Amino acid sequence: MNTNHNKSYGRLKWKAVSAREAQHLNEQGVSSSIPQGPKFLKELSPDSAVYEPKQPITKKLKKLIDDYAYGGAFQSAILKIRQQRIPELDRIHNLYQFYYYIDALVTWIPGLRVWEWQGDIYHERTDYLHLTQFYYYFNQPELVSLQSPIAPFTGEALTPLSLWLREFAVEWGEFLDTPESANHLVTYKFGPEYTYQDYNGGENGIENYKTFNEWFSRTFKDIDRQRPVAQPDDPRIIVFPAESTFVGQWTITTPAGEPMPAESSIVVKHVEWPIPELLKGSEYAQDFEGGIFVHSFLNVFDYHRQHAPAAGRIIEAKFIPGQVYLDVQLDLLDAEGRADENSSLANVAMPHRYLDAKDATDYQFVQCRGLFVLETAIGKIAVLPIGMAQVSSVVFVKPGTQELIRLTQQKKKGRSYD
Fold first, then answer.
1. 3-state secondary structure of 50
2. Does the keyword section mention Lyase (predicted)?
3. Per-residue pLDDT tens digits for 250-305
4. How far is CA 33 from CA 21, 181, 187, 356, in A?
5. Domain check: are 131 and 265 in the same one?
């Protein structure tokens, strides 16, 4: 086969392959003419083999399971998911294989699986797939009961399992800061939704990024032209602070006294979520009583930099520690659902049974998040970049630049997410 991965391919006339075609592509293996990594879990041990964890974070999980007698709960979740016939996860039958899976995931080099087939080229949403697979285990009732609740007014320390989930996210994030993590970035050229051509990458384009995290936090070639600010001279105009999809907006209540005292909050699905909890210790929390809460979300392929929604002065900026929650459900994709689900995706192989991450409005109040408060001509605006799953760190940039503020190893000593 042609080994030149710079060759041109046509775009499909339809959005996604059928469920049967997606299964066929998964069974036949990826294209050998496009440089990409080996199939995930390729070296998975057989059922009867004893496997000892290799990575520090996996060893921590094994110790946690042993110390707290969580083995039965994990085994129950593993068997339940195995019976659901989810590709890749149906190969994991016991805790030993689960430990191998965690070892493989925390050192997985991101990239898309890509196929050449019938004159066209297709790709899998591989990074999204691995995120949803991982959290699907921890969405099982047996394991949900071992984690900190997604609920207002908890005020309690994270459970051991919720702490481990956060540590896992941190450890994988550290791996994604290594040069090795950039080995398969070229495969993202075959995912049209990533629009790699719109971003800075130097002379060699996408292959010039030194780490996966550098690629993930990529910058536009000319943001003033590509994403111009609407009416920049009008201080009354508030713009979207991120490349995101609007979810909704809610009125923030004012505090109530007797006989039913309540903090300033928003009400979602009949549950009150207090704004002081969301802003956690902000001296400006009272300024948002009676205001508006707006929620939008970013997909894995979106531009992941947050901007100011209005001109002003930053009067507060901080990181708020919390959980690394992700709500994942197993969905069935019928013809109507396929049209809706893939409206922003092209050339994607998506199976009939697939895992999907939900972005409800509630978990943000207990999640790892950043906060910066702006003093503007129309009052104070609080902006909260909120993490989901492994995308839970928040890094601020130096004023007037896009240069990340990085802590040295010396500065990291003594710091934690608690």
1. coil
2. yes
3. 999 999 999 998 899 998 877 888 999 899 889 999 999 999 999 998 889 999 98
4. 20, 21, 11, 30
5. no
Q: What distance in Å separates the CA atoms of residue 361 and residue 382, rounded to the nearest whole number?
A: 17
29 in any annotated domain: yes
pTM (two decimals): 0.86
Amino acid identity for residue 251 in this structure: T
Q: Give yes or no: residues 342 and 314 share one domain.
A: no
CA within 13 Å, CB half, 127: 24
Closest CA relative to residue 334, chosen from 320, 318, 350: 350
Instruction: Report which of 7, 164, 174 is spatially closest to residue 70, judged by C-alpha positions.
Output: 164
215, 206 Cβ separation under 8 angstroms? yes
Do 330 and 84 meet the contact criterion of CB atoms below 8 Å apart? yes
Helix-strand-coil split of the chain, %, nearest 5: 35, 20, 50
Is 243 found in the same domain as 97?
no
Peptide bond into 87 cis (omega under 30): no
> At which residue do the structure tokens 């492994």 appear?
390
235 and 371 inside one domain: yes
**How far are the Cα atoms of 59, 139, 198 from residue 119, in angstroms, in the given order?**
46, 39, 26
Number of domains in the chain: 2
Q: What angle do CA 162, 373, 213 make, to 5 degrees?
A: 50
pLDDT in tens, 325-356: 889 999 877 655 555 554 567 788 877 778 98
pLDDT per position as a tens digit, 139-184? 999 999 999 988 876 567 899 999 999 999 999 999 999 999 999 9
CA–CA dist 363, 389 (Å, integer): 11
Quickly count: other Cβ atoms within 10 Å of residue 198's Cβ. 15
- Full residue range of the structural domain in which residue 149 is found: 19-208+335-349
162 and 41 housed in the same domain? yes
Residue count of the chain: 418
Indicate if 174 and 241 belong to the same structural domain: no
Q: Count the neighbouring beta carbons within 10 Å of the beta carbon of residue 6.
A: 6
In a domain, 13, yes or no: no
Same-domain pairing of 178 and 288: no
Helix (H), strand (E), coil (C) string for 309-348: CCCEEEEEEEEECCECCCEEEEEECCHHHHHHHCCCCCCE
154 and 296 co-located in one domain: no
The answer to whether 374 touches 306, Cβ cutoff 8 Å, is no
